[in-house]
């Protein structure tokens, strides 16, 4: 046993040393390529200016155009480097090359985009230095040198490494550049946000990653994961170091800003309230292009941290895929940002990648994979969490079962009816007046029982409610107090008989969508009431599932 521990410690030490050596090598390359080389070229340019007695460029033009050129060059280089890392699993460094040929993003516009962006970077320094020799002699000379190097050496190396794949790629992609829109792959916005956000993620949400090597460096593949928090896609992308295109509800793209943002993140929208073959085609097309697609098979975030059931339709769809499926378990995200809360808090996260299951798939195999990740996602925050908003989860008192009597004051949850009270700690465990400490999911368990509504035929809203109607675009048709009675929904002066209801789905933490079929729906938008309460009441009265 002692020898086994020694071997494990030695392996961990070697892994840590390898990681330190790799990042030291990368840092040295960055300093040499982006710092030392421009400085040496600048020194050479100064001598050329002196020998040829060349005048200096105007100050205004030099600084203005130079700073712009420098910024574009650096921004483009960062986009290229991140795209190469996420898509190819490597770096633009000879000893750490990508294991996959990258043809997407900047690499569909040029076979050598990094050289071009570096040339633009040098031009920026030349303008800032106001050196005509730098701009007219050194930069063109450097461009000629890298062009010859790329043609006579680098392209031959790539051809040997990737064979026919690279030969086909260079036939359709120009050596220098073409104007156009980069197809697929991580875009500029995604790469910039990735670079800025990843250090913040590891700072505020220290992440322990296990099994990341299972994911591999190339696609196509599908990642399935449990879902308890809005930030789960962020944690998954940061821990996998891969560009993952997530299947997301079309609701996230309802506004122009949401549509613009999520499109650039590579999201694949799917509509909840009607069959959506278009979304399936986009998903299959992404896989065909070698992408990794992320699916949160539960379809929505958990309210209490417990895993949600996976529909038979989703399981059947997964069995029909012909690419590897990677189960991923995310732990700790529920405490970070529970569905009922208003904002996230910093805290540790655990992400575990399991070994893939490979096609052909059986329903039993898919079910077994789902069991690996169907765990309670609780966790712990670094700061205490305010219970404000928990009324949306605890819509009835867990003690006396009276509806609408829960309220919060400070860091305590109270019941107006029986005067029971609970405090919540950083692990989202509740402690009642009896001194017992239990997870919040266990406290909310009695509210899942139908007996809470036993004998109740009428449900009235607490606070103002808006009623909207439509398909992809919704229009407000009524507002005021909401009431359900005798299969009829009343909102203000408006009434509607609820019949042929297909689904009851909660969007966010304050909206309940009532699916009417053929893409039509009603939406109840609550100002202070719980959509979870209304969902469970209507499920019972209308005899349908969520």
Structural class: alpha+beta
Q: What strand line-up does the widest sheet have?
A: 1-7-6-2-5-3-4
Overall spatial form:
elongated
| Number of beta strands | 21
Q: Tell me, rounded to a whole number, the average pLDDT.
A: 90
Helix proportion: 40-55%
Main sheet specs: 7 strands, mixed
Strand fraction: 15-25%
Q: Number of helical runs?
A: 14
Report how far the terminal alpha carbons are from each other. Answer: 51 Å
Radius of gyration: 29 Å
Which ranges are low-confidence, i.e. pLDDT below 50, for 5 or more consecutive residues?
A: none
Notes on the structure:
It is built from 14 helices and 21 strands. It has helices at about 1-50, 60-90, 115-130, 130-160, 165-170, 190-205, 230-240, 255-265, 275-290, 310-320, 335, 365-375, 440-445, 530-540, and strands at about 205-210, 220-225, 245-250, 270, 290-295, 325-330, 350-355, 405-410, 410-415, 420-425, 430, 435-440, 460, 465-470, 475-480, 480-485, 490, 495, 505, 510-515, 520-525. The strands form four sheets. It has a seven-stranded mixed sheet with strand order 1-7-6-2-5-3-4, with helices on both faces. Strands 8-9-10-11-12 form a five-stranded antiparallel sheet. Helix 2 (about 60-90) crosses helix 6 (about 190-205) and helix 3 (about 115-130) runs antiparallel to helix 4 (about 130-160). The longest helix is centred in the first third of the chain and has 51 residues, at about 1-50. It is elongated and about 95 Å long. The two termini are about 50 Å apart.
């Amino acid at each position: 046993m002692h020898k086994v521990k020694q071997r494990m410690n030695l392996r961990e030490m070697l892994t840590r040393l390898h990681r330190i050596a790799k990042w030291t090598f990368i840092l040295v390359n960055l300093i040499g390529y982006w710092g030392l080389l421009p400085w040496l070229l600048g020194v050479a340019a100064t001598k050329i200016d002196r020998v040829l007695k060349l005048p200096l460029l105007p100050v205004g033009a030099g600084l203005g155009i130079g700073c712009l050129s420098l910024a574009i060059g650096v921004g483009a280089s960062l986009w290229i480097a991140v795209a190469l890392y996420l898509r190819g699993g490597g770096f633009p460094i000879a000893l750490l090359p990508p294991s996959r040929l990258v043809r997407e993003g900047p690499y569909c516009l040029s076979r050598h985009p990094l050289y071009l962006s570096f040339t633009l970077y040098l031009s920026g320094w030349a303008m800032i230095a106001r050196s005509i020799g730098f701009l007219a002699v050194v930069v063109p000379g450097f461009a000629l040198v890298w062009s010859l190097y790329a043609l006579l050496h680098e392209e031959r190396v790539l051809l040997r490494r990737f064979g026919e794949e690279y030969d086909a790629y260079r036939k359709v992609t120009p050596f220098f550049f073409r104007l156009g829109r980069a197809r697929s792959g991580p875009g500029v916005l995604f790469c910039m946000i990735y670079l800025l956000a990843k250090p913040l993620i590891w700072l505020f949400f220290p992440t322990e990653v296990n099994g990341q090597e299972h994911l591999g460096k190339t696609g196509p593949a599908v990642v399935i994961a449990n879902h308890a928090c809005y930030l789960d896609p962020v944690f998954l992308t940061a821990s996998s170091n891969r560009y993952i295109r997530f299947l997301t509800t079309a609701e996230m793209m309802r506004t122009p800003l949401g549509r613009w943002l999520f499109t650039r993140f590579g999201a694949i929208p799917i509509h909840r309230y009607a069959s959506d073959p278009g979304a399936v085609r986009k998903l299959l097309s992404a896989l065909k292009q070698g992408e990794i697609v992320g699916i949160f098979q539960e379809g929505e975030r958990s309210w209490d941290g417990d895993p949600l059931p996976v529909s038979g339709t989703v399981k059947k769809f997964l069995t029909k895929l012909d690419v590897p499926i990677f189960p991923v378990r995310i732990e700790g995200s529920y405490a970070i940002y529970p569905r009922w809360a208003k904002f996230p808090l910093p805290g540790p996260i655990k992400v575990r990648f399991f070994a893939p299951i490979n096609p052909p798939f059986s329903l039993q195999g898919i079910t077994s994979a789902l069991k690996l990740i169907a765990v309670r996602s609780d966790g712990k925050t670094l700061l205490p969490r305010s219970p404000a908003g928990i009324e949306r989860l605890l819509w009835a008192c867990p003690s006396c079962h009276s509806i609408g009597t829960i309220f919060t004051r400070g860091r305590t949850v109270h019941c107006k009816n029986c005067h029971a009270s609970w405090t919540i700690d950083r692990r989202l465990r509740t402690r009642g007046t009896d001194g017992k400490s239990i997870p919040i999911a266990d406290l909310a368990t009695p509210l899942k029982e139908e007996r809470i509504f036993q004998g109740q035929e009428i449900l009235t809203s607490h606070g103002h409610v808006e009623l909207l109607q439509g398909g992809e675009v919704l229009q407000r048709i009524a507002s005021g107090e909401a009431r359900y009675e005798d299969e009829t929904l009343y909102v203000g002066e408006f009434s509607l008989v609820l019949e042929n209801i297909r689904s009851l789905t909660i969007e966010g933490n304050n909206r309940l969508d009532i699916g009417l079929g053929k893409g039509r729906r009603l939406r109840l938008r609550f100002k202070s009431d719980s959509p979870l309460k209304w969902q469970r009441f209507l499920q019972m009265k209308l005899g349908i599932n969520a």
